[in-house]
Specification:
This protein is of the alpha+beta class. It contains 11 helices and 11 strands. The relative contact order is 0.07.
């Protein structure tokens, strides 16, 4: 894995690029200022040299012997030559032929010096840029010319030192990027390790939220995911235990009677009764399997709804006709509370009937002879609903919120009252959600409990 493929490498590279851009902009600005200052400093240095040369030439003229004059003149010329300074002198009345001048010096420069007493300028020629200074020595115009580059090198030899702070700025940007990358990368590395442990089945893994706010939010989300997975798996285990218990009971009866028939233990008049038991228990198994398949389909992508206008009043009355024989056989009164006019809503009528059947089956299981079951429907300005309520034993207040969770009520009341697999109410809750509504459980004013599916009209 190359450095640029890691988060730390990319942050460091980005910081280096930003620092490089900043250094480049700063360097360009500083170079311009430095060059201007160096030029001004070089011009001032050449001006001092011009003052010195003018005074020296006066001193040379005052020497008594020619030998002394020659020695002083040679020393001055050597000094100026070592610094690439060109010396020119012009006496009043000199012409181009008699004046001691070399390029880039001109008679016009000398005239300016003789007229004003001094000259300070910068000039460009075929040989490059020059600094020119002029002074009056007694009656002679003394002119000095020095290449700009050499003058700047003499007066500002430390210009190259600008590179050092620029390099330090670049290194500082890279170091800052590395520190920032480690502050972000280290918590992310811990999060990645925790995620791998979580994917490996460790549901106890938790990470300490630290680092930048976004990393803290990811850590909190990972902790919440781990807790949710642990809770989900625990509920699944409970659900599978409940389902296995519910399937085992009818399977035991079917297996026992089938073995009795196969071994000839059950014969004669006992055979029809045994066959009826087998048929009844097989039907129970079939219902349990259908409930499981329905829940599985709703949690998969192949679950489809057929949405169309449906009359809830007609749907409730049709369901009541189907359930009345079973209710009468158990001595339970079945009533319908539905308006005479249609209660229209866009929904999947078949799925809604499935919810009514699950609620009716759940209610009939816990009701005793002489108690009653009511199927109803209605609507207001915002929602329509179907409702199944009874005057049975009811539920505790804290159980209303968990009534539609798989197996929760079955686990709670097993051994206390007749219970099923716990799939029916879970199926109702999931159907309500898929239909765009919600399932609710409420206490009855007098006795019993009411289960309803609420569907939005808009």
């Amino acid at each position: 894995m190359t450095l640029t493929k890691t988060l730390i490498g990319r942050i460091v590279a980005l910081a280096m690029l930003v620092a490089l851009a900043s250094v480049a902009v700063t360097g360009i600005a500083m170079f311009g200022l430095f060059r201007q200052g160096a030029t001004e400093s070089a011009q001032a240095a050449l001006a001092r040299d011009a003052d010195t040369v003018a005074a020296t030439m006066v001193d040379i003229e005052q020497r008594r012997t020619q030998r002394a004059k020659r020695i002083r003149t040679i020393a001055l010329q050597q000094l100026l030559s070592s610094r690439q300074i060109t010396l020119g002198t012009v006496e009043p009345g000199d012409s181009a032929a008699t004046a001691d001048l070399k390029a880039p010096l001109t008679l016009a420069d000398a005239a300016t010096v003789l007229r004003t007493g001094s000259l300070s300028t910068e000039r460009s020629s075929n040989q490059g840029s020059w600094l020119i200074e002029g002074r009056v020595s007694d009656t002679t115009a003394v002119l000095l010319a020095q290449p700009l580059n050499r003058a700047m090198a003499d007066t500002a030899p430390g210009g190259s030192r600008l590179v050092i702070p620029l390099i330090l700025g670049l290194l500082g940007g890279g170091l800052a990027g590395l520190v920032l990358a480690r502050q972000i990368g280290a918590p992310l590395g811990r999060l990645a390790a925790a995620a791998r442990r979580l994917s490996g089945g460790d549901r106890e893994v938790r990470v300490t939220p630290d680092g930048p706010r976004e990393v803290i939010e990811v850590a909190q989300a990972l902790n919440e995911l781990a807790a949710a997975l642990a809770d989900s798996e625990q509920r699944q285990r409970r659900f599978l235990l409940n389902v296995s218990h519910e399937l085992r009971t009818p399977l035991t009866a079917v297996t026992g009677y089938a073995e009795g028939l196969a071994d000839g233990v059950i014969t004669g008049a006992e055979v029809p009764a045994a066959a009826e038991v087998i048929r009844t228990e097989a039907a129970r198994l079939d219902r349990r399997v259908e409930d499981l398949l329905a829940l599985a389909r709703m949690e998969a992508d192949d679950f489809r709804l057929q949405i169309a206008p449906a009359d809830l009043s007609e749907l409730v009355r049709t369901a009541a006709l189907a359930w009345r024989p079973r209710a009468q056989a158990a001595g339970i009164g079945l009533w319908v509370e539905a308006p005479d006019e249609p209660v229209l809503v866009n929904t999947d009528a078949e799925r809604l009937r499935q919810a009514i059947d699950a609620l009716a089956d759940n209610a009939l299981r816990v009701l005793s002879s002489g108690e009653s079951l009511t199927l109803g429907c209605g609507s207001d300005d915002e929602v329509a609903w179907i409702e199944v309520h009874d005057d049975g034993p009811g539920l505790a207040e804290e159980e209303l919120a968990i009534a539609f969770e798989r197996g929760r009520l079955t686990e709670r009341y097993r051994g206390d009252r007749p219970v099923g697999s716990g799939l029916g109410l879970a199926l109702v809750g999931e159907l309500a959600r898929r239909l765009g509504g919600r399932a609710v459980a409420r206490h009855r004013p007098d006795r019993g409990v009411s289960f309803a599916v609420l569907l939005p009209l808009r």
